[in-house]
Amino acid sequence: MTDWRPLEGVDVDGINADLVHGEPTVDVAIYLPDNLDERHKEKVTVDLLLKGLVDAKEIFGAVGVQINLTSFTTGHLDPALFEVRSTAGPDMPTGRFTNMYRNAERHPSILSREALAAFDAMIPDAPDADRTLHIVVLEDVFMSFHERLDFRTFQLKTISTGGLSFPGYMYGATIPRHMRGVISITDITKGETSWKTIAHEMGHKLLNVSHEYRSTSPAHEVRAEGGLMLYGQGTEIASGPEGRYHRERLHVSPYLYRLDEDGTKVWNPDYAEDGFYYDPIYEGISVDLDAEAS
Ligand SMILES: [Zn+2]
């Protein structure tokens, strides 16, 4: 267990005041180290975190999912863990002979040693921790991936992320179970769409999809308007085959529950395999991308 404490001045009950008993709900916990560097502090403030959460409540509320803030805690974090790499090593290039989702099943991402240590220092192994989204604030999370330059050449690119979701479709079951809902937030002041970073990262976790929308196939970085899962102002979580089943996928997420009459959480079924894009829980609501990979 960690010895972190509730952050004073955060009105958790007020934020949750609009929750409706029995509606599909996702639990979210927020963790903000109290010793981050002065020069980082303005990039992720308490107000920005809460605003991002309230915006996420609106976006997911529009498709019938409410967000319950379970805790907002603070405490000391070893400064050696302020900056982490998202994975233990550069992942392999993807998409040569199968799509990125199938490729990730064969070669799941593995958390870096320091990312694992940082999350372990903040996220307690408490009841329902494995069904909670854990939003952890760090100073930098570096992600590396390959860009295809020609038919046989790939260039490794490393980016400083503003938010990263460590999604099931990339990591499968390689993240320790109690922290599998982790999302890092490192900068929500970067640009015009930073206001939706928290909702977008929650979307990766809850829809279990990459950057895709309607006719836009998944890719590492897609700057376009329309959907929550693109880098634009869009917030739509579309349904049906033309919407790549995003709304249907959201509603079967193992992170969702309903309270029964006694106030007991009735969870959606857990992933049947390891929680990749084509996990059996998404039977009939995933897109066969093989034809699109060329
Ligand atoms: Zn994203």
Keywords summarizing the entry:
alpha/beta, Collagenase (Catalytic Domain), eight-stranded mixed sheet, 13 strands, binds zinc ion
For the record, the CATH architecture stands as 3-Layer(aba) Sandwich
What do we call the CATH topology? Answer: Collagenase (Catalytic Domain)
Portion in beta strands: 15-25%
The unreliable regions are none
The average pLDDT value, as a whole number, equals 94
CATH hierarchy, class: Alpha Beta
Helix content: 10-25%
What does the secondary structure layout of this molecule look like, with pairings?
Elements: E1 5-6, H1 12-15, E2 25-33, H2 38-41, H3 46-61, E3 66-75, E4 83-85, H4 100-106, H5 113-122, E5 132-137, E6 140-148, E7 154-161, E8 163-164, H6 168-171, E9 182-185, H7 197-207, E10 211-213, E11 216-219, H8 246-251, E12 256-259, E13 265-267
Helix pairs in contact: 3-7
The structure holds zinc ion (ZN).
Zinc ion binds next to helix 7.
Tell me briefly what this model is.
By secondary structure, this protein is an alpha/beta fold. The chain has helices spanning 12-15, 38-41, 46-61, 100-106, 113-122, 168-171, 197-207, 246-251; strands at 5-6, 25-33, 66-75, 83-85, 132-137, 140-148, 154-161, 163-164, 182-185, 211-213, 216-219, 256-259, 265-267. 21% of the residues lie in helices and 23% in strands.
Protein described:
The protein is an alpha/beta fold and 294 residues long. Helices cover 21% and strands 23% of the residues. The chain has eight helices and 13 strands. The protein has helices spanning 12-15, 38-41, 46-61, 100-106, 113-122, 168-171, 197-207, 246-251; strands at 5-6, 25-33, 66-75, 83-85, 132-137, 140-148, 154-161, 163-164, 182-185, 211-213, 216-219, 256-259, 265-267. The strands form three sheets. Strands 1, 2, 3, 5, 8, 9, 12 and 13 form an eight-stranded mixed β-sheet that branches. β12 and β13 form a beta hairpin. It is globular and about 55 Å long. The structure holds zinc ion (ZN). Residues 200, 204, 211 line the site of zinc ion.
